[in-house]
Amino acid sequence: MSIEGMVLAGAGAMLFIASVSGRLDRLYLTEPLVAAALGVLLSLLFLDGALDLETPLVLTFLELTLALVLFTDASRINLTRLRDGYSWPLRMLVIGMPVVIVLGMVVSGALLGFSMGFALLLAVVLAPTDAALAGPVLESESVPDRVRQTINVESGLNDGLAVPALLLALALVESEGGATAGETTLLFISQLGIGVLGGVALGWLGAKLIDSGTEAGWMSHLHQKIAAAALALGGYALVQLLGGSGFVAVFIAGAFLSHLVRPKCEYLYEFAETEGHSLVTLAFLFVGAGPIAMLFREGLPSWEVFVVAGLSLAVLRPISIAVSLLGQRLNWRTVFFLGWFGPRGLATVVFVLLAIEELSEIPDLIVTTVAVVVAFSILAHGLSAVPMSRWLGSATESMEEEMPEMGEAYPHQMKGGVSP
The CATH number of the domain where 243 resides is what? Predict the structure, then answer.
């Protein structure tokens, strides 16, 4: 498809989604679900094959979109309250995510026959969650505020925190391919170290720039938003050129910037809910036209792939989240709800594309498994967001006020512009 054709398809899909957006909740649909479905339809009707996401233009778009998502998601988190006010998501990140990675590595190795490196790589790729697929949950007043905030904070942090694990998995695969331990260790440390240092520097310089420009009257509210987006994109590119991880850098930069200038961070939230929202929706259109459409064209994969996908979505994450929340006195419905709403989306797709880009060879089975997991997640989490929210809401109506679910939620910017 030509560039003009891609622009036409993307603009047409966005126009259609905008036109029906007010009706989607009533139909139990989400915007990413509709966008992915349109992508599949466009691919089957107008393309000779599935859209190649490794095309430089498409890959760059997806990487920059994820960089902006990481930057704005990290900016939502109040670091001073993370330990006290966000104890549930902190436990889910510190305990739950490592557990789900270990379980995923075991399942991938046992069912798909991968080496330790590739098993770890697939487990890490499938670990981050995407709250864009569960937007109705974050917007539902039926769900207790503290539960919504838990999903919001966890999904905002786990994709960024998964990047170091991804770098480690890539280093392990390369060591299995013949690279020396010293070479892989040096590569891992340099990518992570340059990313961390670059992120701190970007966050500090960005805060100084925006603070100084605003106080001097040189920077309007609109241009604060433009400056923040430019900082994220430019910082990602710079750190990548220096040999570091641009994703680590923008994630740290977003958290550091918002920590330093939090009273003036409305422009970051506004960007996430307008331009950022549009970019993510368009990204799901490409995902539908690419790996998901590939499943329709190439036929069903092996039964082992479906088992791994089902376990990843419906068993491994719920178990890991339940383990992480032991001792918190939560109702079993709440624990199941938090475990179920771990949809896989943009970060999962971009991570596997990065693996393809970094490694000389990657098993096709990994790409197929990722496509099946993302397709199932878009469908299952998109369709279940509204009814599951109502189910939990009806269950919490009878809860006593002293139940943990009914406790106070710290003020925190929600995706979708909703605040508790």
Answer: 1.20.1530.20
pLDDT tens sequence for the chain (420 residues): 677 777 888 888 889 988 888 787 677 788 889 999 999 999 988 888 888 898 888 999 999 999 998 988 888 776 666 655 578 888 999 999 999 999 999 999 999 999 999 999 999 999 999 877 777 788 888 888 888 888 888 888 899 899 999 999 999 998 887 777 777 888 888 999 999 999 999 999 988 887 787 777 777 777 777 888 888 899 999 999 999 999 999 999 988 887 777 555 566 666 666 777 888 999 999 999 999 999 988 888 999 999 999 999 999 999 999 999 998 888 899 999 999 998 998 999 999 999 998 887 899 999 999 999 999 999 999 889 888 988 988 877 776 566 676 656 555 555 544 444
CA distances (Å), origin 360, targets 117, 206, 232: 14, 36, 29
- pTM (global) more than 0.85: yes
Instruction: Name the residue with tokens 């850098």.
Output: 249
In a domain, residue 23? The reply is no
In the block, which residue shows the tokens 């599935």?
50
Residue type, 334: T
